[in-house]
Amino acid sequence: MESDFCTQTRCGRRPSAPLDHIQRAGRFVGKRDLRRGRLSTLARGCLLDSLRVANPNQTMSDRLRASTASLDAKMPGADSMTVRALDSMEDLEALADSWKDLLRRDPHATVFASWELAWHWWQHYGQGQPLRLFVVEHSGSVMGILPLYEQRVRLFPGIGIRVLRLIGTGGDTQPDYLGPLLEPACADAAATALAEHLLKARRDWRVILISDLVEESPFRRAMLAACHAKPSALSDTISARPIVVHLPQSWDDLLAEFSSHRRSTIRYARRKAESKYGTRFFVATDPEQIGPLFDELAQLHRMRFTAKGESHVFRSIEFLGFHRDVVTHCARLGWIRFYGLKAEGKTIALLYCYRFRNQVFYFQSGFDPAFEKLRPGFLLLGYAIEHAIGEGNESFDMMRGEHDYKTQWSRQQRTTRSLTLYRPGPAAFLWRARFEQLPPVWARLKRWMRGAGRARAAVTATSGTVPEELE
User: Fold this and answer.
1) How do residues 11-37 score in pLDDT, each as one tens digit?
2) 193 shares its domain with 216
3) Which residues, including other chains, have CB under 8 Å from residue 117's CB and lie 6 or more apart?
4) Domain of 88?
5) What is the CATH number of the domain that holds 109?
6) Quick one: which of 274, 286, 249 has its CA closest to 374?
7) Domain end call among 341, 366, 397
């Protein structure tokens, strides 16, 4: 549904966390988790059984604390879990319900690890490539899902290797915050089972690449522990450092964090745009509107980058088809926010965002270069952040990409990691040379060439000749 920002109802102070809780698997589990179904059937049964045998004179809080030892004893370990490898579209479709249940419960999961995004990504990017779904099970219950596929990667002319990597990576669209989904009550055990299985399966692939992994994921800890005896077999590097705005209780509170000059700039830009161009901010969430707005976004994005003489991402059939399908599907689940700015009766700027668990993720944008002096991108981002605060969100994540317009709103960062598991041999050596050792060398060479070019231009401008050392 499209709505004017001025008609949005402001949310009050966010409710505090429940007081009755216990620590389980790196997060809090309490009465609210029981009511909302955030525990699996197995974990819920173990916890309730331990509560029933507690002293009836105890409070619920005391019973929950007293149940910790009993729950630890009943939850399965990695040795009691099995890992199945699935490889068909039918398997991917059959996993939908279990996948969605884990997404709802896993505290580290984001919208980009959802079944909906994986399904649509595979429809557009996965055809012709072998699917590899690793499912952790215990007593018939799904405890974890690691969605991978096999890709043939070209290293050098005539040289390529098979790489096992996450669904969602390897194409021309790149989300952040990926990784396996794990049952929170036994996340460490499920992660360990997956890590040990991948180490055993390493002989079938030259490289296993788990990129854009949530840094706090138990799977990362499990992989590092499993490979501790062979540190050369695993590379743990930073994948990205997305900028994130941690949202306060009100827009005024956020403005108070900025300098007086920054506050004046924001307010002046708004007054000027509203008085001179009659700008109006709007938000769209209705699935019927999202499709046409996505087409407008693609057109605005292309216009902007074409005017700058640069390439853009809205060019491949796969990219357009995937995102058009996924925004329509996710809009029906309430996960999509399209923020827009109108001027002179037409849309001049759009932001394509996801909203999940009180977090807004800014994915793409586009604006009309004819209105560049109006600074529509800067204006719209401010309106979007203000709306996100009013909606009760906790953060506005700018996603990957280091750009100055992002640091104007925040300098706080999150970190995603990339784990690369190698099978020792010539292929691993070539992979590391191509993707780890050569890129820094090329970057330094490009910086040197740019510096030499500027020096050449400066000398030529002053003397009309070029020194021999720059020839």
Assistant:
1) 433 433 333 333 333 333 444 444 445
2) yes
3) 111, 168, 175, 326, 330
4) 78-240
5) 3.40.630
6) 274
7) 397
